[in-house]
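ARCHIVE CARD
CATEGORY: sequence design from structure
SOURCE FIELD: tokenized fold
FIELD CONTENT:
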């Protein structure tokens, strides 16, 4: 899609723990979830993983993501709770991500760096919480 839109390539990175838990929650509960810190996570349900859906187009080609400021992306695919063997459905989470340095230092750059930093955890379904090391 980006090549057809004459856009620079994005760099695929591993999803964050936050993204993994939120997409898992969306797949289990059917709720719409988002990333309250970077707001770059979109989830959608599909039975065709190769489909060029509107959320995918918006995140890959959208005007809100200048290539130099949000050059990375991650993708998560979970089997949807409503899926069945005859008609599998998937919850897909795609996220645009800032540079690794900005992502690392972002908590220090916010006006109130640590207020609300863990609010996203309240959205996570219990079965999706990963054990902390």
């Amino acid at each position: 899609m980006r090549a057809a839109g004459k856009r620079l390539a994005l760099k695929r990175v591993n999803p964050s723990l936050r993204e993994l838990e939120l997409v898992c929650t969306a797949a289990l509960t059917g709720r719409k979830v988002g990333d309250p810190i970077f707001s770059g996570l979109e989830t959608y349900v599909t039975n065709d993983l190769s489909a060029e859906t509107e959320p995918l187009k918006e995140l890959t080609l959208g005007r809100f993501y200048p290539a130099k400021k949000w050059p990375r992306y991650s993708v998560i695919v979970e089997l949807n709770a409503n899926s069945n063997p005859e008609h599998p459905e998937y919850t897909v989470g795609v996220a645009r991500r800032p540079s690794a340095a900005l992502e690392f230092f972002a908590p220090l750059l916010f006006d109130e760096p640590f207020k609300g930093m863990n609010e996203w955890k309240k959205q996570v379904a219990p079965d999706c919480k990963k054990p902390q090391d």
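CARD ANNOTATION: Residues 17-29 form the longest helix (13 residues). The radius of gyration is 15 Å.
SHELF: design records, drawer C
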